[in-house]
Amino acid sequence: MGPDDASARVRKLTQECVDIVRTILVARREMGKLHDPSLREIHLPRASEEIGAILALTESATNDIMLAAEDMMSIDFKNPELAAEIVNDQCMKIFEACSFQDITGQRISSVLKTLQLVEKKIEDLEGAWSGASSSIQPAAEAAPIDPDAALLNGPALEGEGIQQDEIDRLFA
Amino acid sequence: MVDMKMPILIVDDYRTMLRIVRNLLVKLGFSDIDEASDGSQALSMMKGREYGLVISDWNMQPMTGFDLLKSVRADTQLKATPFIMVTAESKVENVVAARQAGVNNYIIKPFSAAVLKAKLKTVLGEF
User: Fold this and answer.
1) Of the ranges A108-112, A135-139, B67-71, which is most confident?
2) Which of B19, B91, B106 is the closest to A171 by Cβ?
3) What ipTM goes with this model?
4) How far is CA B15 from CA A96, A171, B10, in A?
5) Is the dihedral of CA A95, A96, A97, A100 positive or negative?
6) Domains in chain B: ranges and CATH
7) Which of B27, B106, B108 sits opposite A92 (nearest CB)?
8) Taking Cα atoms as reference points, which of B56, B12, B65, B59 lies closest to residue A110?
9) What is the pTM of this model?
10) Which residues of A make CB contacts under 8 Å with B?
């Protein structure tokens, strides 16, 4: 290999190194646009709390349903009228307990939205790394266009929202 | 006295909740109960039948219970219909907005039969 060949190879290697550095810098710049602290600071902790609330509510509902069933199992059927009344009351308690399905459904929807947000971030990161990221915009909280949309928050977590008795005072 | 045979419209996008509210109302003595799965269906039903009471969820698509409430209060034929919101939305802003829009009472989910009965008495009178 002559000096000209060696020099050409060095130039080629240098160019490749420059290209690699350029790619890394571009990807880094694009990934910077994706930085969204709200995901880690708000959405993921909220999703975690929602799952905790789902577990607590399903446990509570299961307990209420089992208690109602146990009460019915211990009915003395020698007094049919009283037995019918107890069965009726306990069935109502089971119905009340079943409302957990609505609340947990809304909480799961909230967790799903966070998962979709994470999925979108991963897709954008893949795009940034592969260079197909020209359309990526800096992360930003989408402002609700409809002012009433700000009132759609779903079930409150422990310590959030107001209680029924406070609402009753507002309507008194 | 409350007419226990008056038609009541319950509005919720969860079938389980419709069943729960229906059963609680039946237990309380009401018998004529219709169901809708969102605000627009409810509004359409209200234009075809005079209801003595509407019990509606808030968070539904495409038309929310809040939009239904505002539409009912803006309609000269429907505006006097008693309206109870039954929802998991428990922020003060929600309660205030619903009150300003003309809701008659507001129940937080999950709720008991006793709470529903108490609110019905507040809105409709003793039964």
Assistant:
1) B67-71
2) B106
3) 0.85
4) 14, 28, 11
5) positive
6) 8-124 (3.40.50.2300)
7) B27
8) B59
9) 0.81
10) 88, 92, 95-96, 98-103, 105-106, 148, 150-156, 160-164, 167, 170-171
